[in-house]
Specification:
The strands form three sheets. This protein has a six-stranded parallel beta sheet with strand order 1-11-8-7-5-6, with helices on both faces. Strands 3-2-4 form a three-stranded parallel beta sheet, sandwiched between helices. A two-stranded antiparallel sheet has the order 9-10. The protein folds into two domains: about 90 residues, Leucine Dehydrogenase, chain A, domain 1 (Rossmann fold); about 130 residues, Rossmann fold (3-Layer(aba) Sandwich), CATH 3.40.50.720. It is globular, with a radius of gyration of 19 Å. By secondary structure, it is of the alpha/beta class. Strand 2, helix 2 and strand 3 form a beta-alpha-beta unit.
Length: about 290
């Protein structure tokens, strides 16, 4: 069993990105600049955004954080997005999700200019991804592809079962892995809450991508020997034995699944760190496109 170490791989990627930034600066070109908009004080969102700002510092990017109060109106948020769309120094920006309930997330994501949409959520970029055209890939699926490639996990002709159909992970993952690419050429089944006989499907799978948000859902009796497991979930579970009072769990029951796996991502330290690294990579791509 080989751990797909997202922590180490993302660190390697950041070193590579930092080298590219040095080269850009040496040639007198602009420094990549990533901005983030945070609305409200959701704890997890604040943690994510701070991690993104730190990653920018590490690779030599400029970064801007626009911190807005919870009661910010949709109109005000759309005005902030328009300012970033028109600011030539900003190469890419993200609007941290989830947003407060009074704001229409879809409307907000549509307002981000596709050329600055380094999250890869805009319908234009989703369409380009589906047609296998150059675009920004959503950061989490992009990170998973990178892990599979770097660890030389065989995907061609393999049966991949993706559990979950979200627009952020499940759906793009299913499209990308079926395309002609190094971590692609797979036969993909998308399973979800309405899927019957899910265990029958996962027992056939050579690769399982678990992205449904139910902690420790996938257990050892649901997978075959030699499977590759990509665990996208991360949930806080109360645990009085821990100093923090909780532990982090993925969508996979690691103890029972790992012994049967050829490759498996840990939680934490698997897919999570890759997401931030690929956001940096998309920002670098956005900057290079303009030069």
């Amino acid at each position: 069993m080989i751990l797909l170490d997202g922590k180490k791989t993302s660190a390697d990627l950041k070193v590579e990105i930092a080298e590219s930034v040095k080269e850009l600066k040496a040639k007198g070109k602009k420094t990549p600049h990533l901005a983030a908009i945070l609305v409200g004080t959701d704890g997890a969102s604040m943690t994510y955004v701070n991690a993104k700002v730190k990653a920018c510092e590490l690779v030599g990017f400029n970064s801007t954080l626009i911190d807005l109060p919870e009661e910010t109106s949709e109109e005000t948020l759309l005005q902030e997005i328009e300012k970033l769309n028109n600011n030539n120094d900003i190469d890419g920006f993200i609007v941290q999700l989830p947003l407060p309930k009074h704001i229409d997330e879809q409307k907000v994501l549509m307002a981000v200019h596709p050329d600055k949409d380094v999250d890869g959520f805009h319908p234009t970029n989703v369409g380009r991804m589906t047609l296998d055209l150059p675009t920004f890939l959503p950061a989490t699926p992009f990170g998973i592809l990178e892990l599979l490639e770097r660890y030389k996990v065989e995907t061609s002709g393999q049966h991949v079962v993706v559990i979950g159909r979200s627009h952020i992970v499940g759906r793009p993952m299913s499209i990308l892995m079926s395309q002609k690419r190094p971590a692609g050429d797979a036969t993909v089944t998308v399973a979800h809450s309405r899927t019957k006989n899910l265990k029958e499907l996962t027992l056939q799978a050579d690769i399982v991508v678990a992205a449904l948000g139910i902690p420790e859902f996938l257990t050892g009796d649901m997978v075959k020997d030699g499977v590759t497991i990509i665990d996208v979930g991360i949930t806080r579970i109360d645990d009085s034995s821990k100093k923090s009072g909780y532990r982090l769990a993925g969508d996979v029951h690691f103890e029972s699944v790992a012994p049967k796996s050829s490759f498996i991502t840990p939680v934490p330290g698997g897919v999570g760190p890759m997401t931030i690294a690929m956001l940096m990579k998309n920002t670098l791509l956005a900057c290079e496109r303009k030069s």
